[in-house]
Amino acid sequence: MKIAVLGTGMVGDTIGSKLIELGHTVMMGSRTRGSEKAKTFVEKHNGKATSGTFADAAAFGDIIFNCTAGVASLEALKMAGENNLREKIIVDIANPLDFSKGIPPSLAMCNTNSLSEEIQKAFPHSKVVKALNTMWCGLMVNPGMINGGDHSTFVSGNDPGAKDEVKQILKSFGWAEDNILDLGDITTARGTEMYLPIWLSIYGATNNGAFNIKIVS
Predict the structure, then answer these.
(1) Residue-wise DSSP of 115-180
(2) Does 100 score more than 90 pLDDT?
(3) N or C: which end of the chain has fewer CB within 10 A?
(4) Which sequence spans correspond to the domains of the chain?
(5) CATH of the domain spanning 2-206
């Protein structure tokens, strides 16, 4: 499958590298075609990846992974172009963390809205699925590194078929089907995004990002 990864940071590199390992063809998108981080990503994968602008990558990909900084995601996706995103799945991994007033960051939107909802409103002909935003990127693609992989991840979105396709990708990353919890429509992304302040507090208290939550009943 041809997959676009928007964002050249640690999350984009981790997601893109795993997708290539699984046999997908990846284009990494950034603001400029000459991004040094994107070039490094391409070189690391020996011809199995390409890079370009956000628009180049969005046009290339059958599925789009949004791995940009959350406060810049809408701008990045607008640069990607509505026509390039039309009818495609946007897997939104970003969180709207606002570092403008220092650390700890606040959420740029919460309670009655979420970044994923704003993306869905901005691109009504795309299928936005919130996923993997509640954990460190190393766990996103390798859940087995803690507790034998027995912990929880979530998806939110309005399109059942799109969520099913994203669940298949998550299972290819190593997530057990029973540990992928479908929370419902895109408004449920509010909850997973608002989990981030707790995540950051735990990270600060333990100085360790390799943790997650498990839903038990």
Answers:
(1) HHHHHHHH-TTSEEEEESTTS-HHHHS-GGGSGGG---EEEEES-HHHHHHHHHHHHHHT--GGGE
(2) no
(3) C
(4) 2-206
(5) 3.40.50.720
